[in-house]
Amino acid sequence: MSKVTIKDVAREAGVSISTVSNALNDVDVLNPATKAHVLEVARRLNYIPNLNGKLLKSGESKMLGFFTTSVSGPYFYKLVEVMARECEKLGYGLNVFISKDKQVILSNILGRRVDGVIIFEDWLIDEKDVATMEKENVHAVFLDRVIKKDTMGSVIFDSYVAGYEATKYLIKLGHKKIAYISGVDTMYDSVQRQEGYLAALKEYQLEIDENYLLQGYFEEESTYNAVKSFIHMHPEKLPDAFLAGNDISAIGCINALKSEGYQVPEDISVMGFDDIELAKYFSPPLTTVKNQIARQGILAIDHLVQMIQKKEKGKIQKLPGEIVVRHSSNVKIDWNNKVNLPI
Question: How is domain 61-157+293-319 classified at the architecture level of CATH?
Fold first, then answer.
């Protein structure tokens, strides 16, 4: 069966093609009775408008693009799900572009295949690319990267303050030897969390030991291996607590400690970031810093659409973290004197 065209609707309704077009696009030039008649004929014939042609004519795709190098892990599952739902609510679709090839990314952004873009990793797009995007009037929202232009904004989890507060929390429990497990050196939130950690140690006049700076790349296996390696290489320097760059790393850390015969939190406290769904079900349940992932996704989509519709200019929005205390952290105890050592 051949597809019903706008010509078929016009012929059946006994009107011109332009009249059908006006009725379907709700153009206020028709007699209400004529419009109702045309819409009823279109419904009866199961006419499906050529959306691509309509969008090409309007210069809009009604699609937004999310650009990243990976969508693996609970953080991205949540983020993409929320953004897709918010797009649908606002009348847009969401395309997810996964690539490490800058040229592929830029061709999609500058080729106007989407009306606006959300970009995650900051190393994907450098300052020169941002300038090109600004010149081409591209609408963009960057996650965890500070950019503010007329057509570009940012939604940021305040990782520096979160790193500082998380470290201070562990210090308040009496922990003086705190190791930090970083993520990826080129990522904004990874760098900022570590800077916050170092600032807290400095404020409380605690030693900053280079050996306590491990790298887990935000991955469970990499963190597991890093912690195991640290224990074997520096058994005399075992820390009181590990602060991991995200919850997945915290889980890898705990599994490594368990494999070496240590108990969490009885022997060593462990804390993460993000508060992923698994955090409260893990054994022991993770103490962590809650990252408002859903809120971040909603704000990013809403701000992007507002810029596309010329209702807003680019702005920077910061989201605070919140410490969620569970069972993977504990007060530091001096087992010789068996007294708490709070600071």
Answer: 3-Layer(aba) Sandwich (3.40)
Q: What is this structure's pTM?
A: 0.75
Tell me if 161 sits within 8 A of 326, measured CB to CB.
no
Q: 3-state class of 143 per DSSP? A: strand
DSSP for residue 284 = S
* Homologous superfamily assigned to 159-292+324-340: Response regulator (3.40.50.2300)
In this predicted model, what pLDDT tens digit does every residue of 172-206 receive, in sequence order? 999 999 999 999 888 888 999 999 999 999 999 99
Phi, psi dihedrals of residue 39, rounded to the nearest 5°: -65, -35
| 174/229 Cα distance (integer angstroms) | 26
Say if residue 186 is exposed, middle or buried (CB neighbours under 10 Å; 0-12, 13-18, 19+). exposed
Cα 206 from chain centroid?
33
What are the sequence ranges of the domains in the chain?
Answer: 6-49, 61-157+293-319, 159-292+324-340
3-state secondary structure labels for all residues of 96-115: EEECCCHHHHHHHHHCCCCC
Tokens standing for residue 242: 């590990």
